[in-house]
Amino acid sequence: MEEAQRLERMRMQEAEAQREAELERMRMEAQRAELERMQEESQRMQEAQREAEKDTPALGADNEDRTVMGSLPGQVGPLFRWPDMAQIPQEKLLQGTESIHVRRANRTSLRWVRKVVAAKWLPADEEDEDKEENELDNSLVMVKDAIGPIDVTYVEWRKSGYLIRVSQTMTVLCVTVVPPDARIFGSTTQQRADAVSRICQAMIRSIAEVELPTEEKGLINVAPKGTMAVLQEKSFAQAVVKERDDGVVGTPAWQDSQDELDRQRFNFWWRRLGWWTDGRAAGLYVLKIENGRWEPKYLPKLDDNWFEGPKYTRRRK
């Protein structure tokens, strides 16, 4: 009897070991597949970027602009100029269902708002799970050729007295925050930088752990202290802060080539947040990247005709 029980335990242990081995094999296969997908996406975006760069004129050294908006990269400055929605021609306004590309842009825009803005600063009805649609879904405005050939989505709402506006292209997301009292920004450059830092801590979503599959070490956590710690360090503590004629701009610290961890996390949106303030409002902007596998740039040409399927990112046959 005891021998039979011992054999049964051994059989069960062997079966359990086989199950564990199979689960590990499946996990490794999934990890390899994800790595391959990310590498393919990286290659596709890098090719698209090279094509867009060919069509982007170089800026001369004499183009220094001392204004806040003129100091922002690429298409970012125009994205912070909120349009008068009542003045937009009807033929430029889309419903969000016209084509697969329009539907994808609509869906992606809403996903990125929820990805970047902290849940407690989204509209109150976001927490109502019984509602099929909410304020964000119903308020998103899609404008074709909003900035030249660049298509843009816009959405705004109020929360706790703050006006929050989000504008997006295919590659860039901008958040404007207008507080009920402009005095929170202070008067000195440091006071204003600190005020924008506090806004980020409150309003930007923080992720506790971000795992990235790598060829050498498998899954690694690229934000062991959370993404907000990285954002605060790179976008404020180590940022390049410049006074402009009408405010202050902050550019996140560049990648430290000696820091392997920083190289891994460099191309995530929370590692590349730029900001500005004119003393009345704050602007935050990021490149819409989340897998760390390609080094993006602020190239307006990449955003041309987003709603039609942008030409630089169409898959070539």
Annotate the secondary structure layout.
Layout: H1 2-54, H2 76-79, E1 93-94, H3 100-116, H4 135-139, E2 141-147, E3 150-159, E4 162-168, E5 172-178, H5 189-203, E6 211-214, E7 218-221, H6 227-237, E8 240-244, E9 247-251, H7 260-265, E10 274-277, E11 282-287
Antiparallel strand pairs: 1-2, 2-3, 3-4, 4-5, 5-11, 6-7, 8-9, 9-10, 10-11
Walkthrough of the structure:
The protein has helices spanning 2-54, 76-79, 100-116, 135-139, 189-203, 227-237, 260-265, and strands at residues 93-94, 141-147, 150-159, 162-168, 172-178, 211-214, 218-221, 240-244, 247-251, 274-277, 282-287. With 317 residues, the protein is an alpha+beta fold. It has two domains: 1-56; 76-311, no CATH class. The strands form two sheets. It has a nine-stranded antiparallel beta sheet. A two-stranded antiparallel ribbon has the order 6-7. The longest helix has 53 residues, at 2-54. The radius of gyration is 23 Å and the shape is globular. The model is unreliable at 57-63 (pLDDT under 50).
Give the fraction of residues assigned to helices: 25-40%
User: What is the number of domains?
Assistant: 2
- The rounded Rg comes to 23 Å
Beta-strand residue fraction: 15-25%
Tally of contiguous helical segments = 7
Give, in order, the helices and strands.
Answer: HHEHHEEEEHEEHEEHEE
